[in-house]
Write a structure and sequence with these properties.
alpha+beta, 3-stranded antiparallel β-sheet, 14 strands, 35% strand
């Protein structure tokens, strides 16, 4: 077995080991709104559940050369964002929004996606998504880095409203087989849900 000390290799080398090992990762498609009114959108695969009481989710937004990305800056300034669950029906459009654009330009304009007003917050969602969650910032934590500049911003959002497509909702549960979620692997690779199996949890 290969043994590696992460302090003796580059950030990029550590990134490749992490993203190649921690798979599959769900992809959050996040919309935010700048103070100037620009709607930004971007996918993030450093994404997961924090707690269900109250419902909270986390997104780690990596910085670029110490600079906050639009998503983190907008979420911090306005205190709100919308998380959409990525699925097969619109993953190509989601991928288009990963383009590096100036902060005053909306990535949504690169796609055929359409915005839809939220119920509890000012940031709009994406109509094509089968699941979207309106969130308010519960905590924003700068983390990592080797000097004075953090490497990422960990956004913890409290879900204040769920929107779920009728065909997915079944007596309080999600019909997984109809969601067709997409997950991130390493590099340019993604995965579909694949085969299901069940295991009984021990008492």
């Amino acid at each position: 077995m290969v043994a590696i000390d992460p302090t003796k290799q580059t950030e990029r080398d550590n990134y490749k080991l992490l993203t190649g090992s921690i798979i599959p990762r769900p992809v959050a498609f996040v919309t935010t709104k700048s103070k100037q009114g620009t709607i930004n959108a971007a996918p993030y695969s450093y994404f997961n559940i924090v707690t269900s009481n109250p419902p909270m989710i986390s997104i780690s937004v990596q910085r670029k050369n110490g600079e906050m990305k639009d998503t983190a800056r907008n979420a911090n300034e306005c205190g709100e964002f919308v998380v959409h669950i990525s699925d097969e029906t619109y993953i190509d459009s989601i991928n288009q929004t990963a383009a590096n654009l100036p902060s005053d330009q909306s990535e949504i304009k690169l796609t055929s996606l359409t915005t839809i007003p939220s119920t509890e917050i000012d940031v709009p969602g994406i109509k094509e998504a089968q699941i979207r969650m309106e969130c308010v910032i519960e905590h924003s934590i700068p983390l990592g880095g080797t000097g004075s500049e953090p490497a990422c911003d960990l956004l913890i959002g409290r879900v204040v409203y769920f929107h779920i497509a009728d065909e997915l909702y079944n007596e309080g549960k999600i019909r997984t087989e109809k969601l067709l979620p997409v997950s991130r692997l390493a590099g340019n690779d993604y995965a579909k849900l694949g085969e299901f199996f069940s295991l009984e949890r021990p008492e």
